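Recap from last week: sequence in, structure out.
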Amino acid sequence: YLEYFAIPATLFWIVGLTNTVNLIDGLDGLAAGVATIASITILLVAIQNAFVLVTIITAALAGAAIGFLWYNFNPAKIFMGDTGSMLLGFVLAGISVIGAVKSAATIALIVPILALGVPILDTSFAIIRRYRGGVPIFKPDKGHLHHRLLDMGFNQRQAVLLMYVISAMLGLSAVLLNEVSGGIAVAIVVAVILLVFFGAKKLGILRMKNP
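Predicted structure tokens:
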């Protein structure tokens, strides 16, 4: 239903998500854990919709991510690097596109956004923060979600586990959204949006950190 915008939108989604997963790979186990939760979320949605190909690929990805996470969680014994995190993002983007193509509902576009909400929101907030601060949007900073949590006094493990919880809650919202329709679906989306912006305001993630 995107018609002429389908190809550029797909390219933007794949390139963008590939990089967003890479950008959250700032703490031991963060990217691998979030990718695991996102994979399981998409897997559950694929099972609900009987998408066999997506189910198989996502199950394999979830298994690989869990196996890697065992050695990557703090204190990490191995690291995935840019190549590993970008591969996770690329595969997640690809399988979510396959799932969206198989469904004709608008909800098919919202579900993967929720499933991959943590990296998408973190990158989106970073772009807004840098733009508002008058700095180049591609300039690195220490204002990402995991940096804010560390500044609040959480240690690395606690920060990562909290981001797992956030990712899992967004994933649960995606699974529920796939099961309902009408007013309930709208209520879930509105509730998620309000909670996201409330959390962003509390963390000050839209403000540039003082040097």
